[in-house]
Amino acid sequence: MTALVVPASASAQHVTAGCTAATPHRLIVTVRGLRTGGGDLRVQLYDEPGFLQKGRWLARVEVPSDSRRSVELCVPVPRPGTYGIAVRHDANGNGKSDGGDGGAFSRDPALSLLRLKPAFAQVAVPVGSGISRIAVTMNYRHGFSIGPDR
User: Fold this and answer.
1) Is residue 2 classed as helix, strand or coil in its secondary structure?
2) Which CATH number is 46's domain given?
């Protein structure tokens, strides 16, 4: 999937990957607090029955992070409803989960090393007709804790 990137400011970029003019329902996801450096960013849309199950996402958008601290992505939504967003920053771009990678979910639930996957109810967001917007804050490992970079 090719991403169209249009500069918005020095610290944020708008990305239309995943949406076209014909996409009737969209969720604009602003991903904040990306760790500087390279790597790849993946945003996945889930419904409750498929939440965080391998291959059960409803939509997936992937873009290079290109050393940006904030990225805005457009995720196509099949119909109005309640969904959860999962974000992964593969910080070194190796396609594997490493200690330096980051993650985030819609509604920014608290995460810990013992609880990396929240329940759907903690991340559920209503998405209406047309365009809806949410923001998520990335979390990274800091010793024995997980949280945003400061």
Assistant:
1) coil
2) 2.60.40.2990
